[in-house]
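fyi for ur records
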Amino acid sequence: MQKRLVLDQTQISIIISRFCHQLIENHDDFDNTVLLGLQPRGAMVLDRIVQRMREIRQLNLKYGYLDATFHRDDFRRRDLPLKANETRIDFLIENKKVILVDDVLYKGRSVRAAMDAMIAYGRPLKVELMVLIDRKYTRDFPIRPNYYGRQVNTLESQYVSVEWQSQGFPEDAIWITEKESK
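which gave:
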């Protein structure tokens, strides 16, 4: 299987720092802004952002983890049922600016499902999207990120793999690989 490195550990760290500075520029003191990591992989990106934000500036960040499994349009179309992840949001998002955080934006279906799921916590004032990787030219929905680390051109036969040290990989890295043929 061929693999092409998109981002290495140093580049990912730089992007996380850039995201934090962009958020500080755009959201002042975060009194009316919350961050939601899309479960499961967006939560890992959010954890790094929160950690880095605390290093840069002492802010009272409201953040949580959102699972959109039961809001997906393909939930009932799978051979095996999807396993839901934990949603941890201990605040309302009514009239708040919400930043949805995920690792890879592909077709836009997960983001659409997340927008449906977050309505249970109130109606947001504004929603922004932050992703490490934006797979251009692949959308099924008219969704695009407000913040992205890198845009990549990929084929349907390719997969973007995000590896984290915390998951047992040698270092944080993002790869493009070929999907296995069935």
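Helices lie at 9-27, 41-56, 109-118. thats all i got for now
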